[in-house]
Amino acid sequence: MQSTITDYIKDKEPTEQDVRAYYEERIKEAPQTWYRVRVIAVATQPYAEDIVSELKKGGDFIAIARREASGDAAKEAAGNTGWFALDSAPPTLANAVSSLKVGQYTTEPVQLPDGWGIVRLEQTRPADKPEFDKVRQALTRELIAKKVDALVEELKKSAKIEPANAG
How many angstroms separate the Cα of 88 from the Cα of each of 38, 101, 131? Predict the structure, then answer.
């Protein structure tokens, strides 16, 4: 099988045009915006609702995030998640973030994978577009892998498997 694959891909190396077209396709599919939020994470929905009430009365989001954080590093981060794309976030968090404007926080607790949270959108920025020359080799490997996968599927369809003689 390995020699079949090696022989198959020998003359099927993607052209520069193929790789560039694949790059453009991937860029179109990539997230266009990155988000940075802070999350006050707590164990229960009722407690999260209490925190929303505290915020509505003028509570300081960062101070509350530090108060609720566990561990020195978490207290220092004060709920800062770093930059992320919505498609990499849990759906409930992505939905909450997409409905906020910079500086706003959720007025209803958001269910998170490990509890509940109040989310504040800190910043947005356009997503970075990787330079073609820096990703060319990886994209070439992906295209070759797709061709190999297609070959394997074709071989599976045309394969005839017969039981070996027991005698």
Answer: 16, 19, 21
Question: Using CA of residue 81, residue 83, residue 88, residue 90, what is the dihedral sign?
Answer: positive
Torsion angle in degrees (nearest 10) through CA of 46, 50, 51, 53: 130
Are 116 and 110 contacting, i.e. CB atoms less than 8 angstroms apart? yes
Q: How many CB atoms lie within 10 A of CB 35?
A: 24
Where does residue 5 rank: exposed (0-12), middle (13-18), buried (19+ CB within 10 A)? middle
Chain centroid to Cα 126, Å, comes to 15
pTM: 0.64
**Backbone φ and ψ of 35, nearest 5°:** -125, 145
What are the pLDDT tens digits along the chain (167 aa)?
556 666 666 667 888 888 888 888 888 877 689 999 999 999 999 999 999 999 999 999 999 998 988 777 777 778 788 899 898 899 999 999 999 999 999 999 999 988 999 999 999 998 878 788 888 888 888 888 888 887 778 878 887 777 776 55
